[in-house]
Amino acid sequence: MSLADRVAASLERQALIPRGGRVVAAVSGGGDSVALLHVLAELAARAVVTLAGLAHVNHRFRGPESDGDERFCRDLASRFGVPCLVESVAVADVARSRRVSVEQAGHQVRHAFFGRAAGELGADWVALGHTIDDQAETVLLRLIRGAGAAGLSGMRPRAGLLVRPLLAVSRVELRRYLADRGIAFREDASNDDRRVPRNRVRHELLPHLRTYSPKIVDALARAADIAREDEAWLSRRANEAAADLVSSGGGAIEIDAAGLSALPPALARRVVREALARVAPGRVAVGFGPIERVRRAAAEGLPRADLPGCRVERAGGIVRLVARRGRGAPQRRPGFAYRLEIPGEVSVPDANVTIRAEVVEPDALGLFGRGAVVDATAAVVAVPAAPLVVRSWRFGDRYRPSGLGGRSRKLQDLFVDRKVPRADRTRVPIVLDAADRVIWVVGFGTSHDFRLCEESESVLLLKVSHLGETL
């Protein structure tokens, strides 16, 4: 079976891209992504997919070399007769300004750009060239850092609009594919820099592990698949437990201490992890150490503990998590964030509502009450689906409200127009897909990007009710 045949079979088996779906190829210029582009072009010639264009990020790491990668990718797009969208960003500067690693900043820049590129090119999917070797490296890196099941799940075949068609293909196979066809690609010298942890894992650790197990890469990828399934089930159970144990009150997140202590550790850690993430999104450390400190406060009655970005207080039978703020910083209500499985429902006590999600056929809608209907394919919810997220508003959030002709607006501006008090803005639930794209702002309408059209084959139905009501 040819590589293109294998990828086509994988797309169908894992429901990554529906037949004929419009996809953008994310191309760096390196061998893996160039092979991906050529495979997608082969599949486009058979009408398996529609190649909407190419997306390239110039990280401006290597000066003239980075610019050469950009020119190479533009030439590739020209040869295939598709548009090429380029984002040129000094990622090192972004890392410094956000106080994150260069790798994390690059990840953030790329994924934000890919979402915009898909919208501009009218595509529902962005394909990445990650291989089974990348998956093995990711699992090892996270294992070294002490990750749990979520981290050891590795990279998903699909996460929102991002798909990884080559996740079962090895890097060696891709190099053979390129060599057999005489296809040129760019070599990135930074991939040999042993100061980068991933490169050390690739060039030193994995070769050593092969002396113990020649098929270590396959074994690690299989372990990731198992961990991913386990994590999905545990997360659903943790959401159910959190609905009874976690609430917001007095400017803090409150957890029932006895209830938390009674949970099995696997569920308790997940409940605490989500609670810490809600205190001050992006500013509170959510690692093993902080999670265990909160569990100890619940079990042993510790009166107070200071964590990075958060203070833990014990008041009677309640553990309170309070965001730590610098002097003069504005006092804001804690944010919230919950997973919403499809199908499934989640209680959002912060907004006093319950939100349910399910996929239905267009002719089965009928009267659905309070809620929203959007295109299920655009929202990337074909089974097996990545979960949605229901969270509070964050500064900088924006979307394209239906009825405004596709014009993008900041949520902050919408709140001002609707005269929503500042204190109430963080209580407005926002439903997003796994790629962090806004689908629905409850009370303000759905996104133009997920609108229903004549071609919509299935519908994502979102229902909202007050806590205690029947959906």
Task: Describe the protein.
This protein is of the alpha+beta class and 471 residues long. It has 3 domains: 19-221, Rossmann fold (3-Layer(aba) Sandwich); 250-323, 2-Layer Sandwich (Uridine Diphospho-n-acetylenolpyruvylglucosamine Reductase, domain 3), CATH 3.30.465; 337-466, Phenylalanyl-trna Synthetase, Chain B, domain 3 (Phenylalanyl-tRNA Synthetase, Chain B, domain 3). Helices cover 40% and strands 21% of the residues. The chain has 15 helices and 22 strands. It has helices spanning 3-13, 31-45, 64-80, 91-98, 102-120, 132-144, 149-152, 171-181, 197-210, 216-245, 257-262, 265-279, 288-300, 411-417, 422-425; strands spanning 22-26, 50-58, 84-88, 125-127, 158-159, 162-163, 246-249, 252-256, 304-307, 310-315, 318-323, 337-340, 344-348, 353-360, 371-375, 388-391, 398-399, 409-410, 430-432, 438-441, 445-446, 459-466. The strands form 5 sheets. The chain has a 6-stranded mixed sheet with strand order 3-2-1-4-6-5, with helices on both faces. Helix 2 (31-45) crosses helix 8 (171-181) and helix 4 (91-98) packs across helix 5 (102-120).
Please sum up the structure shown.
With 471 residues, the protein is an alpha+beta fold. The protein has helices at residues 3-13, 31-45, 64-80, 91-98, 102-120, 132-144, 149-152, 171-181, 197-210, 216-245, 257-262, 265-279, 288-300, 411-417, 422-425; strands at 22-26, 50-58, 84-88, 125-127, 158-159, 162-163, 246-249, 252-256, 304-307, 310-315, 318-323, 337-340, 344-348, 353-360, 371-375, 388-391, 398-399, 409-410, 430-432, 438-441, 445-446, 459-466.
